[in-house]
Amino acid sequence: MLRRGNKQENFWNGLQKHRVLIVSLIVIFSVLILFLSAKRKHLKSTVAHPNVKWNSFRPSVQFHPTVEFRNGTDVIWQIPDLPKAVLFLAHGCNGRAVNFWDRSPSCPNCVGLPEERLIVLQALARKYAVLTISSAGRCWSFGEERVLVKNIISWWIEKNKLQKLPLVALGASSGGYFVSALATDMRFSSITLMIAEGVFGEMDIPKSYPPTLFVHMPKDHVRMRAINRNMQALRQKGIDVAEIKCMEFPLTPSLLSDKIPGLDEFISVSLVKLFSEEGFIDEKGYMRKDGRATQWKAALKKRKNLLSDKKEWIHHIQEELNLAFAYHEMTSLQTVQILNWFKSHT
Q1: I need a surface site. Which of 4, 65, 291, 315 has the fewest CB within 10 A?
Q2: Contact 131, 89 (CB under 8 A)
Q3: Which residues contact 193 (CB under 8 A, 6 or more apart)?
Q4: Mean pLDDT on 217-242
């Protein structure tokens, strides 16, 4: 009996040890799976892929804007067949309405900067009537200009019989501050503030204030903290808010030709090679400094024939370098998410 009892005791002791081992292994594997899953989610949420090319929407969507000079400023727009909503776009400092549209017979002075034009094309593809207006000065102001722009938008909507459609707005940098203020004067169904925290500290926020999406670049720590404060303030008013964080991405050899109309792949590859040789990008292709702080234009003079007949591409290239560094620049990479935000609040 004693031997049998010892055997049973040994058996149960051994089983208990195996149970502890099995449970330990399960816990270890569970933690490992959770860690890897969290890591994947982190990568998905922080790495941006510039996968929409400059001609992605041809031939289904083409630029044919209407240009008008009204109340001392440029007003440029395009209305697709059977529009579903109206989108007002406000540029940043040093921007103009012409930046959003390609040069064409109907707009000979248009510039078509790569990020601005892709925002418009994607909006037109989703059946948004798009309206752009130039600021009176270098940046937007918040006094009489708000009244002026409100009157232009109202006139334009009535003129084109779009009163029954949802009205939304997107403003970048100075345009974001402007849209945040304009939203107290106009009935937007929702707004997007890009690389801008808004001017909420300088105004009373009504409970009727529209749902607000912040699209920002966390590298700008000061602005990110201000955005977090304003998001909290809006939530306390019961206003729906959300954010999209835009992260840096590496320059690929074809990036510039993918994003800039007319710039071929040979030039794109040559420019990226130049940036690498000059140390402007690291071994993985990431910008070491913001595009504005990079002496790439001086380096370009060493390759006199590279852009000799295409000086107008300088601003286009500058924008893409700024965007790749992801500190403060207009971005089209999150346009689908932005348009989905607008749709969810109409």
Answers
A1: 4
A2: yes
A3: 171, 176, 177, 179, 180, 212, 213, 214, 215
A4: 97
